[in-house]
Amino acid sequence: MLASLRFNGAQAAAELAAQVSLSRSKIGQELGRLQELGFVERAGKAASQGGRRSGLVQLSRRLRFVGVDIGATSLDVGVTDGLLELVAHTSEPIDIKDGPDAILGRAVEVIDKLRAEGHLPALNGVGVGVPGPVSFRDGFTVSPPIMPGWDRYPVREHFTQQLDCPVQLDNDVNLMALGEMYCGLARSVPDFLFVKIGTGIGCGIVTGNRVLRGSNGSAGDIGHIAVHDTGPVCGCGRTGCLEAWFSGASLSRDATALARGGESPGLHELLGDRDALTAHDVGIAMRHGDPQALGLVRDGGRRLGRVLAGLVNFANPAMIVVGGGVAGLGHPLLAEVRSELYRRSTPLATSTLPIALSELGEHAGVVGAAALISDQVFGAGPTP
Amino acid sequence: MLASLRFNGAQAAAELAAQVSLSRSKIGQELGRLQELGFVERAGKAASQGGRRSGLVQLSRRLRFVGVDIGATSLDVGVTDGLLELVAHTSEPIDIKDGPDAILGRAVEVIDKLRAEGHLPALNGVGVGVPGPVSFRDGFTVSPPIMPGWDRYPVREHFTQQLDCPVQLDNDVNLMALGEMYCGLARSVPDFLFVKIGTGIGCGIVTGNRVLRGSNGSAGDIGHIAVHDTGPVCGCGRTGCLEAWFSGASLSRDATALARGGESPGLHELLGDRDALTAHDVGIAMRHGDPQALGLVRDGGRRLGRVLAGLVNFANPAMIVVGGGVAGLGHPLLAEVRSELYRRSTPLATSTLPIALSELGEHAGVVGAAALISDQVFGAGPTP
């Protein structure tokens, strides 16, 4: 019922009753209960249809969900209302390697600050995303390669104890997919892939409107698919992995090397006396026509496209959404991905396959995290 | 209720009522209706538990489902009872290129023959598998690359008209996966991949006990994933596809070339004055210690393993089942697949991942086809 109000907005009690197959008397009881809990409120009268005008109900405007998106190098916290509209958002740099005590402590501080600023008249639930595999049932991370100190740390419990509200934990890319499914490009698409290109590369898989997490929560771990027999050594210890060839981290590494080696005057100038260039710098240089920067992006797009071509043959999605910080490289990257994908996948799988940039952009993670916990609190929705 | 009887065997009406949440009076009505339809029958009394001994019901022993497994070069027809136990099975060579009229006509003849032999006291439904993409909803094949003349041919309607019973059509590999899920190795595994190595290579994907068919029915089409930039020209017109490098057809091609070129005395002798060697011949030569034959199998296993490694990172299945005719190559093939898979996938995804040969073997397709239509007739089960 709450999910129906989220999806359809304010409705008459009679309409709602029909939708959830409750009798007239039962719906009154149930709405009374939800009103007491602070989940719904009255919203004036419906337009008359000849008879007595019936009262409308809607989700309470005081409902608030918090999405916490913990990345390798950033902490984003967003507040949404019951309709998953973002009402506040903060972002700050972190280093995931500082460990769970420091990072989770900071996340709670940010939430407290948002509360002090009046953004949280209520706190109905918190969704949390982390950049590694998660045991969804247990609410902790499992062997996260880039998160030393986080293995099996009880993240969900930490928030539950500190904030005294329902909490759910998931992998950050799954949450970005969920955000795009509820509020972004993929609203009407039951089967799609969300590809996040950030420090590493990951993929959220949605089939039949459900996030596919796999047998132990590591589904979508495409950054470690081998694209060559050899290549730069990856963070996972092997060679040839996609993200060792192309990701925010590898762009930074390769661009910095080109700048230092003098191959690219443009990148050299951008580097100045800094330690390293970023993927963002590569984008700037590329837009200024630097051929080396463009080459890095094209090579990366081709490798990503090659991996996606295999996954498209395998999963036959109806759409691919590309997000994460490096997605800001935009058109030249997507053009290369598309070209490789259309060349290497079967025509049946690609003939109507759009490949598009995330609509929610940097907000996808926090909105998806709010959607996750909102589904649990509302006892409905396609996930988990 | 019928699915429960299939899964649990004979049960007392009271037990059944509790399982499907029906009142005592409603269950009597419903069982009466199912008995009239010929779906259930009485099966003696339950052991006394102090009170009145209640009557047991079970699936009618006269229930029969037919599974038709149309391959590129073979037509298999199986008959199962209501419990999906195989009670009859026939297999004969065909050429899928003869087109739908010839092949489907022959399938109906075979079913008529099985009926004449007394194997079909009833015909409660027919499941049909074809070696190409299928529009599951429409009951026809879609752009099947190796099936000229079959595009959008109304296969389901053909059988419905000829046999006057419920019919469902699916891709053959999806059906093999379904067979293994109901009656084989994967009985207790909600997420697994079924890899068929026959003339070509395909994959059935089961997630959460459901077959994943993708947005237009082509999910699992892994034979056309590129393993190299170049390679033998594939039936699809591109180069580098997995099945152009390794499949029943490519083993036949490569072994025949080795035999003719004189590189392998063993293969040369096996060839004799035949036109070509088969994958089966390669197995024979390999077991006789022919190093060239073993080399073909190892190279193929390595390429298959490389593709599967990517899919394991992506989908994180709990098991991989390998079937199809070429699976008969057995241990040397699986050893190479495993080695490549464990080397290239993330440890989290492979630490508890069994890779096993199909338990149902050549029966997987017909049993899966029977399971598909049985689920529809019983109005239950995890598929579709």
UniProtKB/TrEMBL annotation, chains A, B:
One of its GO terms (molecular function) is kinase activity. Pfam families: ROK. It comes from the Bacteria. The keyword Transferase applies. Signal peptide: none annotated. Gene3D superfamilies: 3.30.420.40, Winged helix-like DNA-binding domain superfamily/Winged helix DNA-binding domain (1.10.10.10). Keywords: Kinase, Transferase. InterPro entries: ATPase_NBD, ROK, ROK_cs, WH-like_DNA-bd_sf, WH_DNA-bd_sf. Belongs to the ROK (NagC/XylR) family. PANTHER family: GLUCOKINASE (PTHR18964:SF173), ROK (REPRESSOR, ORF, KINASE) FAMILY (PTHR18964). This is Glucokinase-like ROK family protein. It comes from Saccharopolyspora gloriosae. The lineage of its organism: Bacteria, Bacillati, Actinomycetota, Actinomycetes, Pseudonocardiales.
